[in-house]
């Protein structure tokens, strides 16, 4: 029986841990790990927490029995990995939980724009059943350019192929064998931009990818191309996008992320009351110049937020705990 202390849980998560980890000594502490509550975890052998609970040398010294930390996130930079290594503390994460979910959202944005779903719904709600201005376009035969052929981009490629689309992909670390299996063609970024009818972004935000969609790269794109971004807002220069929409160079955009968003490291942090206190996404959205354009769909960084994706976080964490107790740890990081 292990002594496991949990931080930063919602009630539904707590109920599942209680049900699926019977036989262990479970303690649940409200909020994130702090100087005020760390004494309650003094006897903990295992910690389960999220990104607002920072664990460094001082915290480990206050919890001398801890042998394993399970973070309910993909990122783990809130944990001092060097200190954990010194003390022999294993750290496990959730390597992926929203790949299918985000891919489906990207595809939903593509479909909503190509089939003019929003203006059609808004018109009929007003009692207007005329079709003027609602002519749509087929996806069959169109070229989809996927920037970043990782877990999410690969799922998008599969779905696009099922619609009869031709798929181009760019990514410095893309696996040619995986691309062949997905029946998509690996190309350079310039070629992808020049040939794609729709460009969907699935790359991480790094100094190298910041504003990868800018005045110069937009100029290389097809006239009337569509941009989809469910990755990170900073990949797209918002001013350049506005100008391209004004000129008609870009015909439409589907965005789940905006450049002006606060620093989001982990999608699930959007559900945390701590994040709500430090970032006002409502104001970001309300003041955004792209919000009321008829050829732009903006969703509130919601692509990850499915019941199934959040359940995968809990399931993976439970799996990490059981694997550690069984002596065969999984999803180790650092």
Brief sketch in words of this structure:
The protein is α/β, with parallel strands linked by helices.
Provide structural commentary.
- By secondary structure, the chain is an alpha/beta fold.
- The chain has 2 domains: 3-97 and 309-325, NAD(P)-binding Rossmann-like Domain (Rossmann fold), CATH 3.40.50.720; 99-305, NAD(P)-binding Rossmann-like Domain (Rossmann fold, 3-Layer(aba) Sandwich).
- The chain contains 13 helices and 12 strands.
- The longest helix has 19 residues, at 307-325.
- It is elongated and about 65 Å long.
Write out key terms for the chains shown.
single chain; Rossmann fold; 15% strand; elongated; 334 residues; alpha/beta; seven-stranded parallel beta sheet; 13 helices; five-stranded parallel beta sheet; 2 domains
Write the layout of secondary structure elements.
Layout: E1 3-7, H1 11-20, E2 25-29, E3 46-49, H2 57-62, E4 68-71, H3 81-87, E5 90-92, H4 99-114, H5 117-125, E6 143-147, H6 151-162, E7 166-170, H7 176-181, E8 185-186, H8 189-195, E9 198-201, H9 215-219, E10 225-229, H10 238-247, E11 250-255, H11 273-278, H12 281-286, E12 296-298, H13 307-325
Parallel strand pairs: 1-2, 1-3, 3-4, 4-5, 6-7, 6-9, 7-8, 9-10, 10-11, 11-12
Residue windows where pLDDT falls under 50 for at least 5 positions: none
Backbone structural class: alpha/beta
The named CATH superfamily of the largest domain: NAD(P)-binding Rossmann-like Domain
Provide the CATH architecture of the largest domain.
3-Layer(aba) Sandwich
Report the major sheet.
7 strands, parallel
Number of strands: 12
Multimerization state: single chain
Distance between the termini: 26 Å
């Amino acid at each position: 029986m292990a002594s496991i202390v949990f931080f930063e849980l919602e009630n539904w998560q707590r109920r599942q841990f209680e049900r699926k980890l019977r036989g262990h000594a479970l303690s649940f502490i409200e909020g994130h790990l702090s100087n005020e509550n760390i004494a309650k975890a003094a006897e903990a052998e295992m910690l389960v927490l999220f990104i607002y609970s920072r664990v460094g040398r001082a915290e480990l010294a206050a919890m001398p029995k801890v042998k394993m930390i399970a973070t309910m996130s993909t990122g783990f930079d809130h944990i001092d990995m060097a200190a954990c290594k010194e003390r022999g503390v294993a750290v496990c994460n959730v390597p992926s939980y929203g790949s299918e979910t985000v891919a489906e959202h990207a595809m939903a944005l593509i479909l909503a724009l190509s089939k003019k779903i929003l203006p059609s719904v808004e018109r009929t709600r007003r009692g207007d059943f005329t079709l003027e201005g609602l002519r749509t376009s087929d996806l069959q035969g169109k070229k989809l350019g996927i920037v970043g052929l990782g877990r999410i981009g690969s799922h998008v490629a599969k779905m696009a192929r099922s619609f009869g689309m031709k798929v181009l992909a760019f990514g410095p670390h893309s696996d040619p064998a995986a691309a062949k299996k997905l029946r998509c063609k690996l190309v350079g970024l310039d070629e992808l931009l020049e040939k794609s009818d729709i460009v969907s972004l699935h790359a991480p935000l790094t100094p190298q990818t910041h504003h990868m969609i800018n005045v110069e790269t937009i100029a290389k794109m097809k006239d009337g191309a569509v941009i989809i971004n469910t990755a990170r807002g900073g990949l797209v220069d918002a001013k350049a996008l506005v100008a391209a929409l004004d000129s008609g160079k870009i015909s439409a955009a589907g965005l789940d992320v905006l450049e002006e968003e606060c620093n989001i490291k982990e999608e699930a942090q959007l559900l945390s009351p701590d994040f709500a206190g430090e970032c006002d996404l409502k104001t970001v959205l309300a003041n955004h110049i792209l919000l009321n354009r008829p050829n732009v769909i903006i969703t509130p960084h919601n692509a990850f937020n499915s019941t199934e994706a959040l359940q995968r976080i809990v399931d993976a964490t439970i799996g990490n705990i059981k694997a550690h107790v069984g002596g065969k740890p999984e999803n180790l990081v650092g």
